[in-house]
Amino acid sequence: MTRRDDALDAALRLFAQQGYAATSTAQVEAAMGLTPGAGGLFRHVKSKQELLEGIMERAVSRRQDPPPGPFRSAADALAQAVLLDVDRNPDLWRLLLREGRSLPINMDAVYERLVQPSFEQCIAFMRQDGGDTADLRERVMAGVSALLYLRISQWSYGRTPGGVDEDAFVRIVERIFAGAPAHA
Fold first, then answer.
1. pLDDT digits 0-9 by tens, 83-127
2. Which of 35, 93, 115, 164 has the fewest CB atoms nearer than 10 Å to its CB?
3. Predicted confidence (pLDDT) per residue in 23-76, tens digit
């Protein structure tokens, strides 16, 4: 890890905890172990805005790593990949949920680069696996959305939607991906 990575980690943690606007660069410096207000942060980034942009870029680049297996099925691999994308960056997701469009960044671009690829990769994978059906896009949208809400519910309320344990919830999403009835 580099000092720039340290700066991104410290900034993200603080942004998620107290908000982007409420976090000063001096606080980021202190969290990095630098002298607050002395400007040491600016050897690694030019501005607070660059910290936010760097956080987003790093999250996008980390999306490329596949989840570890083994998997029960191709649908389980898809579900685990979506959850891994979120689990790699819980503070980022908390920040996005907390502040969303109030952040000084193009949120449409963030969505297109951070969220939309989950849908598109799932669709492409399902097509390779022989799942090119008329309702494929709808099933993937429902499944990925359910997985994102699973994490949101766990973070916000400390529980899974409907009180279903996580493994059972993921199995339901697997059935949605596979085109089987969710209640089977």
1. 988 888 899 999 998 899 999 999 999 889 888 888 888 788 777
2. 35
3. 999 999 999 999 999 999 999 999 999 999 999 999 888 776 677 888 888 788
- Global pTM value: 0.82
Please report which residue ranges of 38-89 form alpha helices under DSSP H. Answer: 48-62, 74-87
Amino acid at 151: R
Angle 91-60-86 from CA coordinates, rounded to 5° = 40
Extract the tokens encoding 160: 């899974």
* C-alpha torsion angle, residues 56, 87, 25, 61 (rounded to 10): -30
Residues whose CB falls within 8 Å of the CB of residue 6, separated by 6 or more in sequence, listed in order: 32, 44
SS3 state of residue 36: coil
d(C-alpha 74, C-alpha 173), whole Å: 12
Under 8 Å CB-to-CB from 73, ≥6 apart: which residues?
A: 174, 178
- C-alpha closest to that of 183 among 174, 173, 172: 172
Q: In this structure, are residues 91 and 99 in contact, taking their beta carbons and an 8 Å threshold?
A: no
Q: Which amino acid is at 118?
A: S
Name the E strands within the chain: none
